[in-house]
Specification:
With 354 residues, this protein is α/β, with parallel strands linked by helices. It is built from 11 helices and 7 strands. The strands form 2 sheets. It has a 5-stranded parallel beta sheet with strand order 1-2-3-7-6, with helices on both faces. The protein has a two-stranded antiparallel sheet with strand order 4-5. The protein binds thiamine diphosphate. The site of thiamine diphosphate has 14 residues, from β2 and β4.
Length: 354
């Protein structure tokens, strides 16, 4: 097996090692199983509303692994959407914290039980707080883009959203502001096109491919099969490299599946669309990087972990009513999310004062 794992399998991408491919597979399965657990929670009344990532793993796990993670202008800023869980998990967030937000528990480090599931805010990694309003992140991203342009260096701003959202003014705003001559912004825009906005088919709304709109602004672009891990890795690597060095925007439109429908509002049932994890597993098997038994073990292990995490989350408290006005404005430093920290956010006696 060691010999298999040391073989380089793709020309032209020196970092595309067997170890990396197996790591991406594990992250994809981790994301899928935490989302499965979250769906079970909403069905059993342990949560109110689910929306998430099944179908976006092949696009977003490679993205998360390539982020330059850290706080401040020299690192990357992320402005995400509610299907971005593979990005933050690939960056190192803990799956249990997604279940905490799903259960609206006080221990949820992203919103202390006050926002929908998969609405992240991780200050130490420049993950900007998310709102459930679609596409507004494309307007907000301009702010960190301007700050990074002024600062210099190689940190970039990354913004991720859906196809429907590109019809909001925020998308056009980002295209306009990131391409002003002499004032271009270092923003990587990644649109996941799952062909729907809730129940509206994109084929009834989009007169041209979304990528053409970016091209009209002179933005270098890629239109990729986002169900293919390698295509995603490569386009993201190229896009990041361009934005880091040129300090100008780059756009990726990735076609992806939407495997459990829009959200729990439509039942979150599995639908018949291509599953990017199964497709990736076929590639791993074909390259003899793993056996079927080894891949199955990854699924089992992650499912067991999620079930254990759920038991922990179930026993944790909801936020007290008097917490309702907290986190409206900036909070004291000890309240920021610290992944891997043993102490839980609710432990502090500091009430925030607002
Ligand atoms: C500003 C705004 N308008 C409308 C909505 C209601 N809404 C929630 S999800 C959604 C569809 C988004 O579709 P798309 O951008 O394609 O992303 P997807 O959910 O398919 O990933 C809409 C219209 C919203 N959340 N915010």
């Amino acid at each position: 097996m060691d010999e298999r794992k040391n073989r380089t399998t793709q020309n032209g991408m020196p970092d595309w090692t067997p170890q990396l491919q197996l790591r991406i597979h594990d992250l994809m399965v981790t994301t899928r199983t935490v989302e499965e657990q979250a769906i079970r929670m909403v069905r059993s009344g342990d949560g109110w509303f689910w929306i998430g990532a099944p179908g976006e793993e092949a696009l977003s796990a490679p993205l998360g692994l390539q982020v330059r993670k850290g706080q401040g202008l020299d690192n990357d800023y992320l402005h995400l959407h509610y299907r971005s869980s593979p990005i933050v998990l690939a960056m190192g967030a803990q799956p249990i914290d997604i279940l905490r937000q799903m259960g609206a528990k006080a221990t949820d480090p992203f919103s202390r039980g006050r926002n929908f599931v998969n609405h992240f805010a991780i200050r130490k990694w420049n993950v900007a707080p998310m709102a459930p309003t679609i596409e507004t992140q494309f307007s907000i991203a301009i702010g960190t883009g301007i700050a990074q342009r002024r600062h210099g260096g190689t940190g970039i701003t990354i913004v991720n959203g859906g196809d429907g959202g590109t019809h909001e003014g925020d998308f056009a705003t980002c295209l306009v502001w990131s391409t002003r001559p002499g004032n271009e912004l270092p923003i990587l825009m990644v649109t996941a096109n799952n062909k729907y906005a809730i129940s509206t088919g994109s084929c009834t709304q989009h007169g041209t491919p979304i990528v053409e709109r970016a091209k009209a602004f002179g933005i270098p672009s890629r239109s990729i099969d986002g169900n293919d891990v390698y295509s995603s890795w490569k386009a993201i690597a190229e896009g990041m490299e361009y934005v880091r060095s040129e300090r100008k925007p780059f756009f990726i439109e990735a076609s992806v599946s939407r495997l459990n429908g829009h959200s729990s509002s439509s039942g979150a049932n599995r639908v018949e669309e291509e599953d990017c994890i199964l497709r990736f597993e076929e590639k791993l098997l074909h390259q003899e990087l793993a056996t079927r038994k080894e891949l199955d073990r990854v699924w089992e292990k992650r499912r067991e972990e999620m079930a254990q995490a759920y038991e922990i989350v179930k026993s944790e408290p909801f936020p007290p009513g008097e917490d309702i006005y907290r986190y409206i404005f900036a909070e004291p430093k000890d309240q920021y999310y610290d992944p891997g920290s043993k102490s839980q956010p609710g432990d502090s006696n500091n009430k925030g004062g607002r």
